[in-house]
């Protein structure tokens, strides 16, 4: 099976978590071997154009592979496709969209498409239905074989949402990515942070400070893998690759920031750096796949930090923290035995504070910077 088809199947299995799809629809202009990726019990139907989506009903999975060139330039055609895709899927069904955006010469297109798929709603049997976002991944074959970081796979699932309904309604409750992309990390906000902190960085200290923090990991070997949570515009990921030879997978919930990161790595052509738009508290990372997990000044944005970290256990933290977690966790799963987690974040920290400290740093809403380092037991 070709590498791209194999990754499409992996994206399906990533979100359905063990269940076997029985009805699969595939839209592709070229012949596909996707049928080899599903069990013998699966019924797979192929069509060559999204114009034939009415052929599908109650699908478990719909895969659309490089079939939206027109829709990328025509908003009405895109409306029609998304509405049709929703109507073809059963509730809980999965939509996989693979589209190469490199020819569009618009680095913001991935962010716009992500937001569009996230907000689109239609009425179905009196319900307001749309897509629940899971992830946007790069096509690995395009990155490694063709030096193209603008070829993407969107993974979504059909869901019923509360609130108003109606054809092409785009009302939905605000999510955390709305805060990131429409409030703090608009294009203006991103470039303002970068102007303050230095090229490719949106955290205090820029290149020099981030390098000093990375060195706190201790020895790092060329080819080891790092997961960068809250990678932002990618300066830290590219630094870890260029300075230490690491292979870095950066994830962020902000489509705006990752659009910048993706555009820059596409120009740099550094295949040691890949990205994904996803919620790190929900995404199911491959077990024991990273030597290092790094997060710089990001985790304090996450309301449910315990969901991300509650499974880190039996780990000795640095003298700054001395914290033990009793449960196992998503990062525990993602780390290899002996792997290290390094986190910096803003917060009031632990222990007693002097009155002058409280008055200056807390009453005036200034930041106290916290550093955590942990090692997964062998």
TrEMBL record:
Key words, A-Z: Methyltransferase, Transferase
Protein's pathway: Lipid metabolism; Phospholipid metabolism; phosphatidylcholine biosynthesis
Recorded GO MF terms: phosphoethanolamine N-methyltransferase activity
Keyword Magnesium: no
Residue span(s) of domain Phosphoethanolamine N-methyltransferase 2 N-terminal: 38-162
Catalytic reactions on record: N,N-dimethylethanolamine phosphate + S-adenosyl-L-methionine = phosphocholine + S-adenosyl-L-homocysteine + H(+); N-methylethanolamine phosphate + S-adenosyl-L-methionine = N,N-dimethylethanolamine phosphate + S-adenosyl-L-homocysteine + H(+); phosphoethanolamine + S-adenosyl-L-methionine = N-methylethanolamine phosphate + S-adenosyl-L-homocysteine + H(+)
Domain of life assignment: Eukaryota
Domain Methyltransferase: 227-313
Any one of the GO BP annotations: methylation
Entry-linked SUPFAM superfamilies: S-adenosyl-L-methionine-dependent methyltransferases
Pfam families listed in its UniProt record: Methyltransf_25, PMT2_N
Enzyme Commission designation: 2.1.1.103
PANTHER family: PHOSPHOETHANOLAMINE METHYLTRANSFERASE, PHOSPHOETHANOLAMINE METHYLTRANSFERASE ISOFORM X1
Name by which UniProt lists this protein: phosphoethanolamine N-methyltransferase
């Amino acid at each position: 099976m070709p590498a791209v088809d194999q990754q499409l199947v992996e994206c399906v299995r990533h979100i359905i978590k063990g269940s076997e799809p029985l009805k699969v629809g595939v839209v592709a202009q070229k012949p596909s071997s996707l049928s080899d990726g599903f069990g013998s019990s699966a019924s797979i139907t192929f069509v060559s154009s999204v114009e034939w989506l009415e052929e599908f009903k109650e699908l478990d999975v719909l895969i659309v592979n490089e079939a939206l060139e027109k829709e990328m330039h025509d908003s009405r055609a895109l409306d029609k496709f998304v509405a049709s895709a929703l109507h073809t899927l059963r509730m809980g069904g999965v939509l996989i969209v693979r589209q190469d955006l490199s020819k569009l010469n618009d680095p913001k297109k991935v962010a716009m498409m992500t937001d569009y798929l996230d907000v689109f709603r239609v009425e179905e049997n009196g319900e307001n239905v749309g897509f629940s976002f899971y992830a946007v991944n790069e096509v690995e074959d395009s990155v490694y074989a063709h030096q193209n970081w603008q070829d993407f796979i969107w993974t979504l699932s059909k869901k019923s949402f509360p609130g108003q309904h109606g054809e092409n309604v785009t009302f939905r409750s605000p999510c955390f990515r709305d805060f990131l992309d429409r409030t703090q990390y608009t294009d203006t906000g991103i470039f303002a942070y970068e102007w303050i902190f230095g090229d490719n960085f949106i955290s205090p200290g820029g290149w020099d400070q981030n390098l000093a923090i990375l060195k706190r990991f201790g020895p790092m070997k060329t080819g080891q893998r790092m997961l960068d949570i809250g990678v932002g515009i990618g300066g830290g990921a590219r630094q870890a690759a260029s300075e230490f030879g690491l292979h870095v997978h950066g994830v962020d919930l902000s489509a705006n920031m990752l659009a910048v990161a993706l555009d820059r790595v596409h120009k740099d052509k550094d295949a040691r750096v890949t990205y994904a738009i996803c919620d790190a508290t929900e995404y199911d990372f491959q077990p024991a796949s990273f030597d290092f997990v790094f997060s710089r000044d990001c985790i304090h944005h996450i309301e449910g930090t315990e969901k991300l970290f509650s499974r880190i256990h039996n780990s000795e933290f640095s003298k700054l923290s001395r914290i033990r977690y009793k449960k196992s966790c998503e990062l525990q799963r993602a780390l290899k035995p002996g792997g290290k987690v390094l986190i910096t974040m803003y917060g009031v920290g632990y222990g007693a504070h002097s009155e002058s400290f409280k008055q200056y740093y807390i009453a005036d809403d200034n930041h106290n910077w916290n550093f955590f380092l942990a090692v997964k037991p062998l």
